[in-house]
Amino acid sequence: MDVMSFYHDSYQNFVNYAISGIDKLHFGGEFGIEVKVTSTITVNAAAAVGRYYYDSKQNAVITVDNSASVLGQQIIYAENFRLPSTPMEAYSFGATYRSPKFWFISLTGNYFDQSYLSFNPLRRTWDALKFSAPGSTAYNEIFNQTKFDAQFTVDFFGGYSWKLPKDFEVNKKPTFLVFNLGVNNILNNKDIVTGGFEQLRYDAQTSASDPVLTGKFPAKLYYAYGLNFFASMTLRF
After folding, report:
1. How far apart are the C-alpha atoms of 142 and 70, rounded to whole Å?
2. Does residue 34 sit in the same domain as residue 71?
3. What does the alpha-carbon distance between residue 156 and residue 38 come to, in Å, rounded to a whole number?
4. What pLDDT score does 11 carry?
5. Which helix (H) or strand (E) holds 64?
6. Are the beta carbons of 17 and 121 closer than 8 angstroms?
7. Do 99 and 169 belong together in one domain?
8. Which of 93, 104, 113, 151 could bridge to 89 as Cys pair (CB 3.0-4.6 Å)?
9. Do 76 and 145 contact (CB within 8 A), yes or no?
């Protein structure tokens, strides 16, 4: 069961919205491969593809906040809606060069798709949809789940091991000073939406002549960082 508390415009009260009968289905697969092309160059590829969605209609009971008074019951038509805020398809391809002189560089491209917004269950009920014809623009604007655009990143990683002079040996074993640098999202893609949710409050239609104003209370979105990096220096002995 999932319980949400918010101000309900139709009931003009703070309510608890208790949802039961939430069935989910997850399935998918993963694949990875790494090939040594030459003594110094290695390429790798990976893919993860799945489908995660709600597998049932759900039932909601609406009660006054801090009270057992029941205001109403609803069926939520969430069957086949996607689970939110995680990409269901992810692909990567990378190449690494390792020099005999103790340094390496690696470049990896990543592609993500099939990620969806967390939806407001109230907009998937008969009360929200009864004034719009199924398949109409208004109906689809209220009912359909928002899919995020597919996105990509390119990441760089490199390192160098410097063997220190014998004066720095420990127990007659060589000592190394290791430098590493990682740069994520080197193309500075700032359009990557990592998640978000529809607000529970929305401007519901009260008659067929009312306009659909789902944008009056817009969804809240989370974005990934643009270009970012890290660097480290390690003494190994």
Report:
1. 26
2. no
3. 20
4. 78
5. strand 58-64
6. yes
7. yes
8. 113
9. no
Closest CA to 85 of 55, 117, 114: 117
CA separation, residue 236 to residues 136, 159, 167, 174 (Å): 66, 14, 14, 9
pLDDT in tens, 72-101: 999 999 999 999 989 999 999 999 999 999
Structural domains in the chain (count): 2
Note whether 104 and 190 are same-domain residues: yes
> Would you place residue 125 in the very low, low, confident or very high pLDDT band (cuts 50, 70, 90)?
very high
Which tokens is 153 given? 């990143």
- C-alpha 190/C-alpha 192 separation (Å) is 6
* Domain assignment of residue 17, given as a range: 1-21+56-76
Q: Secondary structure of the chain: what % helix, strand, coil (to 5)?
A: 10, 55, 40
Query: Is 9 within 8 Å of 216 (Cβ atoms)?
Result: no
> Which amino acid is located at 63 in the chain?
T
Pairing relationship of beta strands 89-98 and 176-184 according to DSSP bridges: unpaired
Question: 60 with 113, same domain?
Answer: no
Tens-digit pLDDT profile for residues 28-42? 999 999 999 999 999
152 and 62, same structural domain? no
Q: Are 128 and 122 in contact (CB under 8 A)?
A: yes
Is the domain of 72 the same as that of 86?
no
Residue 18: CB atoms within 10 Å = 17
In this structure, are 105 and 181 located in the same domain? yes
Could you tell me the two tokens for 172?
């007659």
